[in-house]
Lipoprotein
Amino acid sequence: MMRDKLLEITTGLCLLVAVACDSSTAKGDENSAGLFSEKKEKKKDKNPASEGFAVNNNYDLEELSKMGKKKVPESSGLEASLDGNFWTHPDAGNDAVLYKVNQSGDLLETLPIDRAKNNDWEDLARGEDGFLYIGDMGNNDNDRKDLQILKVDEKAKRIVGTIPFKYADQTEFPPSKKNQNFDVEGFLMHNNAFYLFTKNRGKGDWVKLYKVENKTGAVQTVAPLDSIQISTQITAADISPNGRHIALLGEGWAYLFVTDSPDNVFKGKKEQIPLGKVGQAEGLVFLNDTDFIISNEGGKLYKLTRKQ
């Protein structure tokens, strides 16, 4: 009788242990599924829409061509040439040279820039004065003290002036990692001034806006005009022919602003256009007041067209 009772108690304990194990396993599976779901969700939202921006799906993206890698080793900036084609260039570690290409990716001209050094060329801008401007302002390590914009006469094929500048809010070279927001890969020109947009390598996703006057000679000290939080790093910038639209390029997105002046660019209407997989896109130029040409570092050219 005692043996039967002990057997009954032992059997009951085994059942309780089995239920507890099943419950623990279920919870473990549930927790694992939750973690997996969370990781999957984070991966899905790698480049989320930025707060305050409306997503604009009213654009078509078309891959146009690819530049020959042996002829054009890299495309880090893009701007219209005087004859309706495009200038592009490589960045740090490459020669001081511009490449003229068409929409088919054909190399039309190679333009070495005499007496220039490619410290870290990151973007191009076209002035109302007809000159081409090269932004030698790449600053990956946030430690440069020789930032400048080169003024180029593309007909004469030479530099005709330099516009050196420094940031008023940078006192350390480099600053702490969280404050490394002094790298610029996108700038534009409007009303004889340059507008620079930072590629934040620190914390907070803040894009700072600086204004540099088109004055050669003495070093200008420039303070930020404004800032905005954007979820991806900015790699290019341009302004539409009518001066009413400013576009910035980020990973997987083009950001479009409607403004009365670049000084107030962050205060107007804000949209972002999904680009999908275009690689490491680093060049952007307006074709007209609505449409763009985009280039990636590997030399592919894309056309972004607003739907009718």
